Amino acid sequence: MKRTTEGKTTIEVLLDQMQRTGLVPVFNHSDGEVAKNVLDASYKGGVRVFEFTNRGENALEVFGLLAEHAKRYDDLSLGIGTIFNAKDAEKFLEKGAKFVVSPALIPEIAHFADQNSVFWVPGCGTVTEIHQARQLGAALIKIFPGNVLGPGFVKSVKAVFPHVPVMPTGGVKPTQENLEAWFNAGVHCVGMGSQLFNKESLDRKDFGAIASSVSEALDRIKKIRG
């Protein structure tokens, strides 16, 4: 596996990036220009890891445009989410994805990731799945759906797997109360989508408001962590 000049693997670098900001935006849009503007706004707000999701017929095309656009940011890692098979993972990696996220624990993707030194994040909803994911080589576990499982689930999981980094996604809110609950439970970072990207701001193409929303969420996380 490749290592940086500091001796870290690419997976370790991604884990560090995710922990440093504590937030991974999760976004999808059929319009490439909107997607690029949201990426810019997120970066301006302080984000350094961004997940685009594989939803919609033109997701691969839009992701390709986004990956090309993201090259202007040397310290930004762009990944792809909602991946269910190795074939799709390979397609998006060829377009420039730096990591792959799945809604479920899928051994086919785990084996593909292991063979190709890819940072793969599986979605897990039970202790058994988390254990299996670790056995299959996952360096980070996506707790999904977060709004159903809740911070209590994470706290219990961390009691059994204290050294396993976890990232809840689904229903995570950028409010002080919600973020406190997750980070106090011991999450590595949180994934956040519709709660972060206000629909009205998107409809108005008010990307300045989106940058502010991201910045405010990151500030709350920083304060919660002390």
Verbal overview:
There is one protein chain. By secondary structure, the protein is an alpha/beta fold. The protein has one domain (12-220): Aldolase class I (TIM Barrel, Alpha-Beta Barrel). Helices cover 52% and strands 14% of the residues. The protein has a 4-stranded parallel β-sheet with strand order 3-2-1-9. A 3-stranded parallel β-sheet has the order 6-7-8. α8 packs across α10. The radius of gyration is 16 Å and the shape is globular. The model has no long low-confidence stretch (mean pLDDT 96).
Q: TL;DR of this structure?
A:
The chain has 226 residues and is an alpha/beta fold. The chain has ten helices and nine strands. The radius of gyration is 16 Å and the shape is globular.
CATH architecture: Alpha-Beta Barrel
Structural class: alpha/beta
Number of H/I helices: 10
Helix content: 40-55%
Order of helices and strands: HEHEHEHEHEEHEHEHEHH
Estimated share of beta-strand residues: 5-15%
First-to-last CA distance: 34 Å
Shape: globular
Question: How are the strands ordered across the major sheet?
Answer: 3-2-1-9
- The total number of structural domains is 1
Mean pLDDT across every amino acid position = 96
- Using only C-alpha atoms, the radius of gyration works out to 16 Å
**Total E-strand runs:** 9
**Uncertain segments:** none
CATH topology: TIM Barrel
CATH class: Alpha Beta
* Sheet with most strands: 4 strands, parallel
The CATH homology group name = Aldolase class I
